[in-house]
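Many introductory courses stop at the sequence. We go one step further.
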Amino acid sequence: MKDNSQTVFIVDDDPFHVELMTHILKKEKIPYVMSFSSGVDCLDHIDLNPDIIFLDYQMDVYSGYETLRKIKRYDPNSFVVMVSAQEDIDTAVETLKHGAFDYIKKNENLEEKVKSVLKKISELSELMNKKKPSFLKSIFKFL
């Protein structure tokens, strides 16, 4: 991702994984990385409008799934990437059905997968931004 103004949230109750994800994101030149140890903490700061949220599936209080649903109620267009050690395909499918952009398994390929997701989000954001001006132009031409 090239836009250095992006804010990324990491939501995970495992300090090692938070540190690993922070390192990966910093290598990708994302300077604004905020981490939260629970879904509740993340939701308390959701008004900061993060560009991307990497969300662990298994956490205390609110599960990642419940946190995902609340995030999507707040901002249906947010990019939420579920990250989990769960290998159950039904879990992945369920989170994708409820608005997760992608589902990444915590394993030795994590860095490669995070880079791939960041690239996909960047490309999609670019396409969405290109479409907006033409849509607005069509409205103003109509008026």
